[in-house]
Amino acid sequence: MKQLLLINDITANKISYYHVLLLMASLPFDMFYSHIILISFTLHTLIHLDKSRLKSLRSFKLLVLPSVLFITILATIYTINPKAAFTEWMLRIPLLLFPVVFSLNGLDLKKYRENLLMGFSLVCALTVFYLFMVVLVTIRFYHMPLRAIFSEGFTNHNFAGPINIHATFFSFQLVIAFVYFLSILIKGGASRLIKVVCIISCLILVSGMIQLSSKSILIILFVAVNVVLPLYLLNGRQRRRYILTGLLITVTGTAGILSISTFRDRYVTLLKEDISSDKTIPRNSDSRFERWRVAAARIKEKPLLGYGSGSEVSLLKDDFYNAKMYSSFLKGLNSHNQYISFMLKSGIWGLTIYLLTLIYGFKIAFKRKDVMFISFMLIIAVVSLSENILDVDKGVMFYSFFFSFFLFSVPDHETSIKEQQKPDEYLVPLATNALAVTS
């Protein structure tokens, strides 16, 4: 408890630490909390601003991280929908705030990185546990059989409903938490208590991800767990043993999941429908492939500049109607692909900047051999194929916070090696944290 909540630092840094910890803990919940905490954190940073830290604003990071906001601002010049464009500005302001605040604040994120990730991961595990309790209470209240927990009424968006968050957006928060707990177990040297906390948390998080049934998350989880973690945290025989064990568990788990009709429909049937252009297939909504096809037709008309910020939904709404995609028209859906979205709104130049931003993140993550940062970049790159992650508040907050957090707290390569060589010393704060949580 002392390591997690009572850190040894000056008062200003303690307050900054609590702000960041609370901000991370608020991410799974209503956006009101994270926005209020961000505003408070920004004001606190300005009040305790050390003028010598203003030099840090010259960093290249301050251009890379808010690049998406800069794209939005520039593409507003020629937009066909100024009102929606300025709304997009407001939505993406955190893309500038987080890197600037982290640059100006005196808190050493590298020093408290493990504490903060532990706090976030535990909150994610506890949130999933709470959601399962809600499901069980509901089942008992309506005298339903226990197997109803796997029915459509308690999976995907319905499972995440009590905390009012999109299933996919909640899922990629759980991936970060799961990879963190698993990395602790892989590094070894953890106390028995730490291992128990990590194992229980991992089981809860995996169960939550299965229940949320986000198809894109499965790809990320497979790569992060079976490739990234063993590649950077293990060597030789241990790596081979881990990969074989991981593949065996993956195959067995996949078979078990697909044996349940709800998940089989979600992961197989709906996936086929989502990437199909066959309009004769009966479905409740239009496929993503069809939405991409309609958006691509629009992009061909203005491939260089696009139609300007905030133009996507209004443009596609008319096109969806003309294509007889009435479900997408009535719901006012976007393209559900971040790369296509940039092409549609800002053309080739906007997409190029976004891709360069992702490449920069991957470059730093791989250079530092930071499994957490690599996993985060995988989430953004893969989910961008199926969601407009930067057109939703939860997506913007996740992207802007964790991109900034990992970039400003990424440990040096030499430091990472020393930490792996001294697992006992490295895990002392974690052991204290877990003891505090369980007490």
UniProtKB/TrEMBL annotation:
Residue intervals of the O-antigen ligase-related domain: 202-355
Annotated protein name in UniProt: O-antigen ligase
Keyword tags: Ligase, Membrane, Transmembrane, Transmembrane helix
Record's subcellular location: Membrane
GO molecular function: ligase activity
Keyword Membrane: yes
TM regions (residue ranges): 20-41, 62-80, 86-104, 116-143, 163-186, 193-210, 216-235, 242-263, 339-359, 371-390
Coiled-coil intervals: none
Pfam hit, one: Wzy_C
Membrane topology category: Multi-pass membrane protein
InterPro entries in the cross-refs: O-antigen_ligase-rel_domated, WaaL-like
GO CC terms of this entry: membrane
